[in-house]
């Protein structure tokens, strides 16, 4: 890929930062939905194609960065603004163009840097958090019907993404709903991403047809990357799913054996994906689970400590206070999961880039 394409995308990015008309349109549509609170709350958890796409669009590109949100109205319920996970009626991928962002997927948190590409199917509950003023991601969204009618015949039944996307229609909830890739600067995959951004921005004749070809080409290129190196994040999604099921007792040795990896390889993967090593990550994971369980009065603190893998209550209390600033008993008196998530994962002095 020549420098000219990168220069074009830099200019497009600067233009959308100066005049983010697409974000204002999104906000205006959400303000309209707020007139019916039930509809708006459903929208926050499930984005429909009718809300996102313009008529005649099968693919769209949405640049996203930290832009001032509308101020809450006194009549707005607090549920309008609480962080929630959502999923889509359509397929989405997003590319981190600059800065750092965090992708919250089920109970997992991925720290993503420039060049990271994240692909979702419609089963994936997630939330994306841009960190700082430099962070900007490009969301590339595809109608599910367009995949079935236009892309599936091109990809073929044996393609990596054929099965991944078709899970959404077949209900394969036990398999990964998210895949992660690191695109090389100047590589073919990055060129397809940049081509999609440029094509959508220019809006020329037959632009949607051209974008479908680029999208299919990008998926094929990502499949080649995965087949040749095994590096996609799909393996990491499996690791994280394993942790979610065995979080109270899982060890590095157990993971390396289950996924046929060296300890150094696993450590490097965790550092790249989360900004933490495995030990720090699993301690944080357990403490968040503990915070959730503390909201259940039928569970004693001793029982929660045991469920989190601690044989000694004192060790559990010390670890919990280290992560939240509160003892378990103090936290139980004033439970606040959103406070815990902000304190643990979005701290201003954190180093999300690792």
Please name the defining characteristics of this protein:
354 residues, Jelly Rolls, Arc Repressor Mutant, subunit A, 2 domains, six-stranded antiparallel beta sheet, two-stranded parallel sheet, 16 helices, globular
Description:
53% of the residues lie in helices and 16% in strands. The chain is an alpha+beta fold and 354 residues long. Strands 2, 4, 5, 6, 7 and 8 form a six-stranded antiparallel sheet that branches. α1 (3-18) packs across α7 (188-202), α7 (188-202) packs antiparallel against α8 (207-229) and α12 (278-294) packs antiparallel against α16. 31% of the residues are buried.
SSE layout and pairing:
Layout: H1 3-18, H2 21-33, H3 37-45, E1 46-47, H4 49-52, E2 59-65, E3 87-88, E4 91-105, E5 108-112, E6 116-120, E7 126-142, H5 144-155, H6 160-170, E8 178-182, H7 188-202, H8 207-229, H9 234-246, H10 252-258, H11 263-274, H12 278-294, H13 301-307, H14 313-324, H15 328-333, H16 337-345
Parallel strand pairs: 1-3
Antiparallel strand pairs: 2-7, 4-5, 4-6, 4-7, 6-8
Helix pairs in contact: 1-7, 5-8, 7-8, 12-16
Short description:
The chain is of the alpha+beta class. 53% of the residues lie in helices and 16% in strands.
Our count of helices gives 16
Uncertain segments are 230-234, 337-354
Mean pLDDT: 83
**The CATH class of the largest domain:** Mainly Beta
How much of the sequence is in beta strands?
A: 15-25%
Rg, Cα atoms, Å: 21 Å
Number of strands: 8
The CATH topology assignment of the largest domain is Jelly Rolls
Largest sheet: 6 strands, antiparallel
* Number of separate domains: 2
Shape: globular
- Compute the separation of the termini in Å: 28 Å
Helix content: 40-55%
CATH superfamily of the largest domain: Regulatory protein AraC
CATH architecture of the largest domain: Sandwich
- Which H/E pattern describes the elements? HHHEHEEEEEEHHEHHHHHHHHHH
């Amino acid at each position: 890929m020549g420098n000219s394409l990168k220069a074009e995308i830099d200019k497009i990015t600067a233009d959308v930062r100066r005049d983010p008309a697409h974000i204002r349109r999104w906000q205006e549509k959400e303000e309209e939905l707020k007139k019916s609170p039930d509809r708006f709350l459903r929208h926050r958890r499930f984005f429909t194609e009718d809300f996102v796409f313009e008529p005649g669009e099968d693919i769209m590109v949405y640049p996203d960065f930290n832009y001032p949100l509308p101020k809450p109205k006194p009549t707005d319920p607090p549920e309008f603004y609480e962080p929630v996970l959502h999923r889509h009626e359509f397929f989405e991928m997003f590319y981190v163009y600059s800065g750092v962002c965090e992708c919250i997927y089920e109970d997992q948190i991925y720290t993503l840097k420039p060049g990271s590409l994240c692909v979702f199917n419609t089963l994936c509950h997630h939330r994306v958090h841009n960190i700082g003023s430099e962070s900007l991601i490009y969301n590339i969204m595809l109608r599910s019907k367009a995949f079935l009618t236009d892309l599936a015949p091109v990809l073929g039944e044996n393609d990596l993404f054929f099965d991944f996307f078709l899970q959404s229609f077949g209900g394969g909830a036990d398999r990964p709903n998210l895949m992660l890739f690191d695109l090389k600067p100047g590589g073919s995959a990055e060129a397809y991403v940049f081509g999609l951004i440029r094509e959508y921005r220019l809006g020329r004749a037959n632009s949607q047809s051209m974008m479908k070809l680029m999208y299919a080409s990008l998926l094929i290129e990502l499949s080649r990357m995965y087949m040749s190196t095994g590096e996609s994040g799909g393996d990491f999604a499996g690791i994280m799913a394993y942790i979610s099921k065995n979080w109270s007792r899982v060890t590095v040795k157990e993971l390396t054996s289950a996924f046929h990896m060296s300890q150094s390889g696993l450590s490097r993967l965790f550092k790249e994906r989360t900004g933490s090593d495995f030990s720090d990550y699993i301690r944080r994971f357990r403490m968040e689970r503990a915070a959730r369980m503390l909201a259940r009065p039928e569970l004693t603190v001793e029982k929660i400590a045991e469920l989190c893998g601690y044989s000694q209550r004192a060790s559990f209390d010390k670890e919990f206070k280290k992560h939240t600033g509160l003892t378990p008993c103090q936290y139980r008196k004033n439970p606040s999961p959103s406070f815990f998530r902000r304190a643990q994962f979005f701290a201003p002095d954190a180093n999300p880039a690792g």
